Fold S-adenosylmethionine:tRNA ribosyltransferase-isomerase.
Amino acid sequence: MRTADFYYDLPQELIAQDPLEDRSSSRLMHLDKETGELEHTDFKHILNFLKPGDCLVVNDTKVIPARLYGHKKETGAVIEILLLKRRENDIWECLVKPGKKARPGAVIDFGEGLLTGEIIDVVDEGNRLIQFHYEGIFEEILDQLGEMPLPPYITHKLQDKNRYQTVYAKHEGSAAAPTAGLHFTPELLEQVKEMGVNIAHVTLHVGLGTFRPVKVDDVEKHHMHSEFYIVEEDQAKLINATKKNGGRVIAVGTTSCRTLESATGEDGIVKATSGWTEIFIYPGYRFKCIDALITNFHLPESTLLMLVSALAGKEKIMHAYEVAVQERYRFFSFGDAMFIS
């Protein structure tokens, strides 16, 4: 299977640069994965596609303001860092630009000394380990100095940090938002519950690898980045009960999907567990847990496009994307949504 098989032509102006004022007013394309039939509506009408007894599974990770700008203490050179994952205490693995100025031993000053970081090692893919020093609470300092790490294809500045968070974001740790969940408002979630649909919460801290392009020609040779996930006992029980009672498990976003598929055994039972996952889902994969998926429109040749193709079939997905371009849907993180059922 070739990476090039997942290419489609996307006009630049269809990449959404700003979130809509009303989260639920984005458009929604419904794709029937059995027939390939397409329907066009608005996200607030998602209720029309849900049934009592279904279970929506959301990823309640919270994006941290992980982009920091500082100055190298010795030279004053501007350094940009992106916090990727906390290794231990105040040591973080970070992406640093420009890398050539960030050698072990270098000290970076942020916010006029409110926070300092010393580069202690160079690790995989040129990332740096940075030991931070500060007084007070790290998260509060980060909130003061950091910016939301928007994806590289978004060039507009985000006016309100909360618009790159889901309304149910709870556990801090992501470098990117689980964007399929951005369409839900508290009111819409309340309506979902009122119609007898359960909502289960899992956590997967989204890494920047989610935007990393597939650089190999042969899809199967691509190595996925690892991300930390948690499925709690009560949530596993809720999802398993849904399956047992004949309801559908509907993942809200590819991150919820990857979490569920990582936590589910070959017997189809979701286990309460936590750990790192490198699961890579592409056509040919046999889904163990999810029945349907709410998702955004993904980048050409990306692992996320491969995942949705595994669920609905590559031909149906590529046709749906062709129609989405013709119908001027908005693409990527702040774009419109698709419901595959």
Notes: The mean pLDDT is 95. Residues 67-147 form a domain with the Thrombin, subunit H fold (CATH 2.40.10.240). Helices lie at 138-145, 186-194, 233-244, 254-263, 303-312, 314-326. The chain has two domains: 3-63+160-340, 67-147.
